[in-house]
Design a protein that fits this description.
single chain; about 250 residues; mainly alpha; globular
């Protein structure tokens, strides 16, 4: 199978977890404390992947300067985009509650869709880039993204249902994001082939910085609000699970 097609398949697999989570969040009445606990676990998993897979890989490829510049740039770009989206109603897009309805804030549905895209693309690009040069895909990164996408989709879909959004909107959104995740991984592999190590390091670090900003801005608040007494313990459990996978 061509490398670019493998990349697309892995990205699609990781993105499909959003749809799995959304189905649970829509059809099951999951208590908010349970949602928050799952979100805390997913945050820990992603934190581990950012630390031991993305940042470590970027540093090994290109050294300190591309890694720091890339991570800082990714955090800045994500934060600025997130600020713009927050003004249009997407501030709480991963929350199981507190999302505005379309009647309360017109255009918030579109903003939430763009925000979901913003959250998912960096992860997929890293998955695609990990296959460059004939290497094997980073199974830890794929597993970490998959495990973190389930609670993201679950919490967000529960919040969308509570805000009165239609089932059609919710599932078309997450199907679209899953497909775009596959396309982003495919493009990340196709467009970055032959790039210098410093460029690959910078792009990997850029995605890592964006993901780290996303975790602290959207996932941790949901976890803390409804499971604050246990959120630290659950997050560490997720972190150690991904760490164990990276050393298996």
């Amino acid at each position: 199978m061509p490398e670019w097609l493998q990349a697309g398949g892995w990205g699609l697999l990781a993105g499909s977890a959003l749809l799995v989570g959304a189905a649970v969040g829509w059809f099951a009445r999951v208590p908010q404390r349970v949602i928050a606990s799952i979100m805390a676990f997913g945050a820990g998993v992603l934190l581990s992947a950012v630390s031991f897979e993305m940042i470590a890989e970027a540093h090994a490829q290109g050294g300190m300067v591309p890694t720091v510049l890339g991570a800082g740039g990714g955090a800045v770009v994500y934060t600025l985009a997130n600020l713009a989206l927050a003004r249009h109603g997407a501030r709480n897009r991963k929350r199981s509650g507190a999302q505005p309805s379309e009647g309360e804030q017109p255009g918030s549905g579109s903003a939430i869709a763009v925000g979901a895209l913003l959250d998912g693309v960096p992860e997929s690009v890293v998955i695609g880039a990990s296959l460059l040069g004939g290497g094997a895909v980073s199974l830890v990164t794929v597993a970490a993204v998959f495990l973190s996408n389930v609670p993201e989709g679950l919490s967000s879909a529960a919040g969308m249902r509570q805000a009165g959004r239609s089932r059609r909107f919710v599932f078309l959104l997450w199907i679209g994001i899953a497909l775009i995740s596959g396309a982003a991984a495919l493009l990340g592999n196709s467009l970055l082939g032959g790039a210098p190590p410093e460029v690959l390091a910078g792009i990997t670090a850029l995605a890592a910085g964006a993901i780290l900003a996303m975790i602290t801005d959207t996932m941790v608040p949901e976890a803390f609000e409804n499971a604050h007494l246990l959120v630290g313990l659950i997050t560490v459990a997720g972190f150690l699970t991904a760490f164990a996978l990276s050393h298996a």
